[in-house]
Amino acid sequence: MKIALGQINPTVGDVPGNIALLTRFATDAAARGADLIVFPELSLIGYPPLDLIEKPSFLSRSEAAVEDLARATAHLPLAIIAGYAGKSHETLGKRAVNSAAIIRNGKVLLRQNKVLLPTYDVFDEARYFVPAQKQELWHDGPNHIALAICEDAWNDKTFWSRRLYPRDPVEELVAMGGNILISTNASPYSQGKRQIREDMFRAMVQRHRMPAIVVNQIGGNDQILFDGSSFAMDAAGNIIASAKSFSEDLIIVDLEAKTGDRHANLPDENECTYEGLVTGTRDYIRKCGFSKVLIGLSGGIDSAITACIAVEAVGRENVHGIGMPGPYSSDHSVTDARDMAKRLGIAFDIVNITPAYHEMVRTLSPIFGDRKPDVTEENIQSRLRGLTLMSMSNKFGALVLTTGNKSELAVGYCTLYGDMCGGLAVISDVPKTTVYELSRIANRRLGDVIPESVFTKPPSAELRPDQKDSDSLPEYPVLDAILRLYVEEFRSAPEIIEELGLPDEVVLDVVRKVDRNEYKRQQAAPGLKVTTKAFGMGRRFPVAQRYRDR
Questions:
Q1: Tens-place pLDDT, residues 233-247
Q2: 75 phi and psi angles, rounded to 5 deg
């Protein structure tokens, strides 16, 4: 059996567009002699559809899409596996099922419903779907296909030290006589996830002594990135075919000959993260109907890397940088911003906020009275910059990209309705130390577009004279180490103090800042997830709460 892995980038809700995409890939696969093409989980409707599943009209359209795809591909000499959301026939529970259909010659041969419904991190499938109680094999000559939908293949008892579910759907299918595993996935990207995915399936196929086809979608849908990285393994766990990361791809594997297409991937994890941010930014802009973006260029490293990602995502002709110097901006900030815009080849304009700042302070002075200047006046500058960018966004129909990183967002080193204004927070899940690493990658890809002075100058918000980030925060390598343990690994303050050997007050101050700035993060623009635990839809903490980790 020659199997094609259709690694595609579906758009949530664009059913006609997704049908056309699947049809095009199936046509290409048939022309290359494939007997079967496999597409990702929910490929006909896009993943994750979220509360669209609650709409009866959407479910009806999803089910109709299966028949539409069957008609569109009836003339092709191959079978197709495609994911969709169907109506549940159970009398209890939710009204929908997460399903995959096997189609051939214009007919649906089998429908397999998902058994395990993840409800953790970015997943909330139990909110929408009823789990399958039984499964079936697809018998195609000597091939007995065990079809598993994403999570159904992620509960192998020999791989995970702690499993989330009592059932192992793959083990059940093997007991029924399955001899080829096909796993359709919408498996989100995070750093290190590609290796975990590969190691897990290797352990599974070696235990069950059968080959596996693992197809994953690519692209960005809102905050979630999908890396693709689809592959085929033989029964010994050797990869015999592989697709690119963060790129649509069609690869074919011959399971009998144990040969297949091997397309080059990105071995370096930071290179992959950079590519993921480009893909996610491009897809968010495109899928939301925008074509142009605005970026506040401060001359700092964060806005620099955001501009580089934007240029690769939508082209330099669609990126507009805005320098907004204030009363405490250094000369080199404007110079560096202008220099970088020139190197990138993007439009650049200066809007000086100093007159507006002084006028605003004068206007508020009768109300503020004799209270001393403090963070209030600092934030006025940031909010004037937000006002400027959002005004230009309204006028020109361009999406504002915010430039704050994960380290700043974690501890609230950002201003609501100021530098947090925008439609997409491109690097909000990228720690500051990683920002520097990604910036070096950007320079290698684009040709030293970020001036060296941007790398070497001390980070500063420039909201008061001679301000530096280190005035109120630990040095970023220290801060990021604390945040990784506290935010991504849920370690307690005493555990962090012991592991890192830091003074109590340093760790406790960071922890307090993280806890008390939840209200800011819940008002932030959606950000692209690249770590195991990102702020946003995968991390849910109450704003009004009094628990403190001491």
A1: 999 999 999 999 999
A2: -85, -5
